[in-house]
């Protein structure tokens, strides 16, 4: 069975002030949360902007929801299926209250769910009688997230969604996304640099670096593959499967980073070398190795 595709980029590139973004070849499956990770300036926001046509690519094609590519402006029926929460809020609705802004947006989105919107702003403690321009950054962010979900988009694009949120509000936001994803056909793309967002929400990771996509990998596999092992003995690290880096400790132990921990353990045990400790690498550590050229074993 062929997996449905939310969006596909074929050779997409865009010239920016400091660098070229792309060419990007990327296929996002439908019904998952995909985190786009990368340092500031890596091209994450430009990629999201091209997906909703805030900027148009200089080269390549984008195919939404498995349909034929479209030259020029997206048809309104496709645009209505794409939601977006930008890193910075727009000014068009500044003088509106949340309900007034919701009424305004409901005319543009045929799947708009006012009941869901009211539930979300209540759950996220968004003041209903305050104009958007008078809200704190966190309150405005929560409104934008509630409005984006209430439109019930098939593709939801989030640029740094936790920006301005306190830890409690962030936890509520995560719960709202999880509840919403139970529907099954929505795809969420999150541009972020925050590891906790990725670990709590994402199914897949897309790594961007200096305008290039370095690959797409399943999050759980990425986190499970990379381990740090301490052992004692004289077995040379290069004889251990999957080793990408090794260290000689002052106490005589050898410490290695491996992407094939089961095989590494088996090799050490068969050669009578005692394993003293195994540690999962943090996501940030894994990404640095990935950037250095050590891609995950299973990746798209």
Automatic annotation (TrEMBL):
MF annotations from Gene Ontology: ATP binding; ATP hydrolysis activity
Keywords from the UniProt entry: ATP-binding, Nucleotide-binding
Entry keyword Endoplasmic reticulum: no
Protein origin, superkingdom: Bacteria
Span of domain ABC transporter: 2-235
UniProt keyword Ribosomal protein, yes or no: no
InterPro entries in UniProt: AAA+_ATPase (IPR003593), ABC_transporter-like_ATP-bd (IPR003439), ABC_transporter-like_CS (IPR017871), P-loop_NTPase (IPR027417)
Pfam families from the UniProt entry: ABC_tran
Designated name of the protein: ABC-2 type transport system ATP-binding protein
């Amino acid at each position: 069975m062929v997996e449905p595709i939310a969006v596909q980029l074929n050779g997409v590139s865009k010239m920016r002030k400091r660098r070229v973004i792309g060419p990007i070849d990327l296929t996002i499956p439908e019904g998952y949360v995909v985190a786009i990770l990368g340092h500031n300036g890596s091209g994450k926001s430009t990629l999201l902007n091209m997906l909703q046509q805030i900027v148009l690519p200089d080269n390549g094609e984008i195919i939404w929801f498995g349909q034929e590519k479209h030259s020029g402006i997206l048809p309104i029926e496709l645009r209505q299926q794409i939601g977006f929460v930008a890193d910075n809020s727009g000014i068009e609705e500044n003088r509106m209250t949340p309900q007034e802004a919701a009424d305004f947006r409901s005319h543009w989105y045929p799947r708009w769910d006012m009941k869901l919107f009211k539930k979300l702003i209540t759950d996220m403690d968004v003041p209903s009688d305050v104009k958007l321009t008078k809200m704190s950054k966190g309150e405005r962010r929560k409104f934008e997230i509630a409005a984006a979900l209430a439109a019930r988009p098939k593709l939801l694009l989030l640029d740094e969604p936790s920006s301005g949120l306190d830890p409690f509000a962030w936890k509520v936001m995560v719960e709202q996304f999880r509840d919403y994803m139970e529907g099954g056909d929505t795809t969420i793309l999150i541009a972020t640099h925050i590891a906790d967002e990725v670990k709590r929400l994402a199914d897949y990771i897309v790594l961007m670096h200096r305008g290039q996509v370095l690959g797409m990998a399943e999050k759980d596999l990425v986190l499970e593959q990379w381990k740090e092992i301490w052992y004692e003995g004289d077995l040379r690290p290069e004889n251990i499967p999957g080793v990408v880096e090794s260290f000689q400790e002052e106490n005589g132990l050898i410490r290695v980073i491996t992407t094939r921990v089961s095989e590494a353990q088996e090799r050490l045990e068969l050669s009578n070398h005692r394993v003293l400790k195994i540690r999962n690498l943090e996501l940030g550590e894994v990404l640095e190795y990935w950037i250095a050229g050590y891609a995950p074993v299973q990746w798209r």
